[in-house]
């Protein structure tokens, strides 16, 4: 008799004490995706939730370093990231993805990879003028100088989400308030049931 067969089956959810899922933050560069992802992760980790942040900018230095900014490459960038997020969610993590992900098709594809109650599309919204004024990485400035062609919002399209699960208006709301709203939405959805 195989000794392993006698062990009771244990799910990732039982092991970790919470559900897995993907929180997909989409929006223009400078809208606040990375900031909110980091703050949310800190708060969840403190509450004992096993998380991982997949930041689009960072992935472009590794996993997606071979990709450019053509529509095809952008689609591939999102697809690969979605697959990694799916694998991590399968392993029981609450994955927070922060990437522009400009096209509806890519975001729908990401949603299709996990059960519907385990995916939250969050539109991190700020008007282009506000994002450009913030310009946290100096990229809008470079784009306006013509040094960064195909920059989203300047000379490459961003398709506004048509049916996001949540909209965070970062031009009108503080980081803390955005994170609190997101946390409550996660609780509503039953992804995170900690007190
Ligand atoms: P993105 O990841 O979308 O490119 P970042 O998070 O890198 O954007 O930068 C957003 C900038 O906007 C940061 O400097 C952040 O401090 C600022 N900011 C102001 N208000 C908010 C808010 N409510 N939520 C997120 N970021 C905000």
TrEMBL record:
InterPro entries: APS, APS_kinase_dom, P-loop_NTPase, Sulf_AdTrans/APS_kinase
Domain named APS kinase: residues: 21-168
Reaction it catalyzes: adenosine 5'-phosphosulfate + ATP = 3'-phosphoadenylyl sulfate + ADP + H(+)
Keywords on record: ATP-binding, Kinase, Nucleotide-binding, Phosphoprotein, Transferase
Top-level enzyme category: transferase
Xref: Pfam families: APS_kinase
Active site annotation, chain numbering: 101
EC number in record: 2.7.1.25
Binding site for ATP: 27-34
Alphabetical list of Gene3D superfamilies matching this protein: P-loop containing nucleotide triphosphate hydrolases
Gene Ontology MF: a single term: adenylylsulfate kinase activity
Listed pathway(s): Sulfur metabolism; hydrogen sulfide biosynthesis; sulfite from sulfate: step 2/3
Function recorded in the entry: Catalyzes the synthesis of activated sulfate.
Family per similarity comment: Belongs to the APS kinase family.
Name this protein carries in UniProt: Adenylyl-sulfate kinase
């Amino acid at each position: 008799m195989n000794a392993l067969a006698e062990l009771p089956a244990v799910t990732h959810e039982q092991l970790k004490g919470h559900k897995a899922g993907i929180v997909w933050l989409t929006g223009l560069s400078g809208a606040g995706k990375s900031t909110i992802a980091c703050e949310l992760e800190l708060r969840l980790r403190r509450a004992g939730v096993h998380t991982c942040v997949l930041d689009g900018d960072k992935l472009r230095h590794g996993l997606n370093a071979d990709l450019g900014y053509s529509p095809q490459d952008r689609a591939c960038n999102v697809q690969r990231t979605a697959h990694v997020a799916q694998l991590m969610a399968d392993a029981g993590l609450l994955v927070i993805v922060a990437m522009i992900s400009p096209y509806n098709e890519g975001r729908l594809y990401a949603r299709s990879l996990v059960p519907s109650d385990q995916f939250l599309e969050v539109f991190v919204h700020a008007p282009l003028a506000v994002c450009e004024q913030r310009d946290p990485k100096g990229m809008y400035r470079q784009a306006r100088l013509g040094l960064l062609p195909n920059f989203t919002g300047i000379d490459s399209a961003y398709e506004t989400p048509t049916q996001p699960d949540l909209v965070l208006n970062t031009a009108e709301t503080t980081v803390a308030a955005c994170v609190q709203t997101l946390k409550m939405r996660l609780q509503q959805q039953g992804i995170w049931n900690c007190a």
